[in-house]
């Protein structure tokens, strides 16, 4: 059979199935083709050009070489602003983060451009920290009470790291509380406190006994890899029943003390003697049943030692105290607490001795402790038949039983600023004495140390006094010889 050949003439439209040529195919018009996808091997891209095609007309174009994998430098891109006020940033990487909901944010950190669609989901507590309505709020703290804590949370696709329970303080998990020594995991939604479970604080108190404040701390790793911490509400477990009022001893009754004015509050001048009576003031019951007062700390049952007052015997130098007394209460019979535990409140009252600043004139060459403690005759006559005079400045020059330096400084200042009888408020501080062929005495607590100066009308006169004698806790200055002022008072100022 004859084979037909087609002759393509200028201006004709030829339809051919295949054209094979060893030469070139060129066109002065546009060139159209149905191009398959390339099957090149990655990494072998040096001779590959990029062809782009108009999908509407089929026309295709060539561009520069293929920009895939390369062993050379990583391509970088540069950002710029329309105003030109921000320096361009070179970008070396692009991160795209896609979360479910939220705004779109763009950030550039260290050349990395991050496009984030939506917000990183965060965990949250689905229910407040609470107790299982088993905490007894109408009881004494001394009653051990078991209870259960409940909570709930949603990790929200984050990764669990830890769950901790804190107690104590206003916000226990935020710096002012203590971690409860228990282990919790992501599946825990409760913890049971039981009496005797062995969980104690640093003082050895069981968590089941005292009122507490609790708070949870949840730590996770978010989907973007960042750490995240949230805390729960604060659960206050408190005793709502009013606590019984505190009992006390009333102020000392010094009516049996001689001399009765030789005291300042609960400090008594050495040398005062007699009996001090105290009276018990019971605390308010506040709904609890009062079991009375005695000297036993661990019983709720009054006994024959039940007291309503306490007498203290005072000798020359001793200090004394009422000792601890206790008022007891039990849970009222209408309460449901079983057993009926009790509450005790301790109270006591004490007195201390003081050595007040004193001065005077006398023909006596020395003073015994008995002379110093002879409070009844000191202000009038220091020895029999001697028209001596002396002054005790009660409460002046005492350091409140505390030998620390600031208290001693205060006591010294009191003596330096003291104005004795006959010294007007408008005059400088000091003391006045009127010796008549008598020694001049200055006496105070030896804890305060030596004077540095005794100033008189003629200036420094400490040289007229013997070096101080320290005896029985007193510092005693006495003039070297008797003095005679001829009936005129002599004034001295004292300096430590």
Note the topology.
Elements: E1 49-53, E2 60-65, E3 77-78, E4 90-91, E5 93-98, E6 104-109, E7 112-117, E8 124-131, E9 147-154, E10 159-167, E11 178-179, E12 190-193, E13 212-221, E14 227-231, E15 235-237, E16 248-249, E17 253-258, E18 263-264, E19 267-269, E20 273-281, E21 289-294, E22 309-314, E23 320-321, E24 325-330, E25 342-347, E26 350-354, E27 357-362, H1 369-372, E28 389-393, H2 405-416, E29 431-433, E30 436-445, E31 453-456, E32 459-460, E33 469-471, E34 474-478, E35 483-484, E36 490-495
Parallel strand pairs: 5-7, 19-26
Antiparallel strand pairs: 1-2, 3-4, 6-7, 8-9, 9-12, 10-11, 10-13, 13-14, 13-15, 16-20, 17-20, 18-19, 20-22, 21-24, 23-26, 24-25, 27-28, 27-30, 29-36, 30-34, 30-35, 31-32, 31-36, 33-34
Describe this protein's structure.
With 496 residues, this protein is mainly beta. It contains two helices and 36 strands. Strands 27, 28, 30, 33, 34 and 35 form a six-stranded antiparallel beta sheet that branches. Strands 10, 11, 13, 14 and 15 form a five-stranded antiparallel beta sheet that branches. Strands 16, 17, 20 and 22 form a four-stranded antiparallel beta sheet that branches. Strand 13 and strand 14 form a beta hairpin. The model has no long low-confidence stretch (mean pLDDT 80).
